[in-house]
Structure formats: C-alpha cells, structure tokens
Amino acid sequence: MLARCPSCRNTFSTDRTGRQDCPVCGKPLVVPEQGQRAAAPTAPQAELLPEPTGTPWERRAELGLVSAWAQTVQQALFEPSRLFAAARLDRGAAQLGFAVLTASVFAAIGQALGLLVRGQSEALVDRLAAQAQMPDSFRQMLHTTKQMNSPGWFVVSILLLPLVNFVFVYLNAAVTHAFALLLGQSKRGFAATFAACTYSWAPLVLLAVPGCGFIVGIVWLIVLTGVGLKVTHGIKPAGAAASVLAPYVIICCFACVSVALLGAALRNILEQR
Amino acid sequence: MSGKNNYFFSLARAGPPSVHALGLAVTGAALLAAAAVLPLDAPPLSLLACPLRAATGLPCLACGCTHAFHFMVRGEISAAVWSSPLGALLAAACAAHALWTVLRLLGLPYAPRFEPTRAARWAAALGLAANWVFLAVRA
Description:
A: mainly alpha, 11 helices, B: 6 helices, 7% strand
C-alpha cells in the first residue's frame, strides 16, 4: 500500500500496517488498516493513498501481450508522465521483463538488418581505418567492429542479448539510484527508480534502425528516465535531472567521446574528398 | 545494529530476498564472472580505454574499475585497490551481496538495511572525491 508521512509529506510503499518509521525522514508513524483509523495512535498517523492501477504491461493478462506491450511503448514515448504515474512498485519482475524483451527483440532486428547491409558498413569501416591520423585504440575498435560483423557473431550476440540487457538494466538502475541517494532524491526506494529506468527503455525500439537508431534511442532513454524519476519518486524536475545526468557526465563519458571521435574521423574523410 | 533510522547500517529480520535483491545479485555475479573470464588485453575489455584520460590526462571517476574487478576476482586485493579504490569496493560489494543473497535463499532470516542519512551521503560524496584525487595523483 502507499502511505504519506505526516511529518515530511513524502509518499512511500509499505507492505504492513501499524507502527513503523518513515523510510524517508525516519520519524515514527502509524500506518492504519484500509478503511479504519486507529483508536489511539501512539505516533502521527500516515495517510493512505490509492495504489496506482498499473501500466498496460502490468495488466497484460487482461489486455493481451502484444496490445499491452504496444500501449506501454506508446505511452512511454508520448505520454510518459501518465505511464510512470500508473506504474506499480511491486511489479519489478514485469518491469524487468518489459525492458529486457523490448531491448533484446529490437536489438536483434537491428543486427539482422545490419547484416543485410554488411557490405556498405564494411566499406565505411575500411575507409575509416585507412585514415593515417587516428589513435591506435580507435583503429583497433574499428577492426574489432568489422570482425564482429559476421553471421557467427550475429548468432552469438543474439543468444547473449537477454543476459547482457538484464545486466545493463540493473546496472543502469543501480547507478541512477546511487546518485539519487547521494543527492537526497530517493523518496520511495529502489523499486521506484527501477520502474523509471525500465519503462524508459521503451525508446530502444529504435535499435531496429541500423546506424543512428542507437544514438537517438539512448538520448530519448535518458530524457525518459528523468521524467520517470520525477513521477515515481515525486521529486522536483531539477533533482530528477541531476540524478539522471550525473552518472552520464561523470562515468559514462566513453560513449560521448566515442561519438566525437567518430565524428572527427568522418570529418577527416569528408575533407579529403 | 538497530532498526532505527539514525544508523547508516543495520541488520533487520527479513524473509526471502526480493526480486530486486535477486536481480542485483545476478548482475553482480555476472560482472565478477566476466572479470574472471575476460582478459584485460583483448577485446572487448581492451577497447575500454578512458577517452577522458586520453583527451585531458585526467582520469574519470570510474577509471581503473575494470582492472580493480580483474584483480579482486584473482584475490590480488592491494593491486585492485591501487587500480581503483572505488572499483575494489564495488567488486567486494558485488561479491558480498551475491553471497548474502544465496544465504538468504538458504534460509538466513536477516537482511542488511542501509539508511541514506545526511552523514552517510556526505561521506559517500567525500569518498568519491577522495577516490578521484587518488586516481589523479597516481596518474
């Protein structure tokens, strides 16, 4: 059930009634039974809030798998606040399934399409690798990319995709939650961060687009995670933005600088032509 | 140890691990397994050179974490700490959480509980800063 602390006014999820401490401010309170009020509470009484109805994906038993998935993606992309407000914090397994399924299926489609245009991408890699002024690490990366663009690697990567996505879902949620904790923005625990992080993987349907789909999907994912944190934790936009962007700024500079290096290499090629 | 919230760490009676506890344990175990299996000097790990350090000469906060995990799973704790104190701590936390989750699955009725008190948050921020200073000075 959802309860609101009478001292700090933050909402939190609890699975029991009675006397307990607010997980946000730590002050004692009493969570009453549904529809009852304690006769003589020994601590300020928490206010019970209605549970969210659940996202379409969390109601897939009644909506049907495909319809529930499609509605969830649609809401995540175009009505994210509504989706995150409906997310239930006790549906972690379902949320994990949504993220892993979406990313794995569309990454597989993207890799299959990439295999079809292999000749084109290999020619691009060869042109990039032929550049004289290039760091060795970048040249090695291009060489490895070319090696991994084969049918054998395609099969291996398809088999590994669910495990890799599973690990990345939890890594993403753990790092985001760690920074939310550090900045004092975690009001409703890891489950709330996890719900925000999993549904924000919906834009990874763009992984099906070879080349640019990954970059657009990741940027959209970051924005959605911020929206999700704001709604699921009930925090201010600045706090949500700081929690989401801090790890990317501090830790995940690798992808940004890789894109910059790729851009610089492409610019060199274009200037020479 | 206490159930009160004014302590950063406490042990509380708990039932079986939650979905998220299991998921994080699997993730931690997967990271440690990858560190045990993948060599540092071959792709994909050899491709993870820090571009921030290459561009500025300064390490990023996560610099050395791959090496720290690599050394921790081989029991070379001092080498791991030298590579990255943060990475060594994270690797130890992954192992501890995975082990504790297995024990809870086997019936241990206690779970660690961390309260993000103000003091704990400041300590964590200072710890991250100290880790970065250590990496910068060592570099």
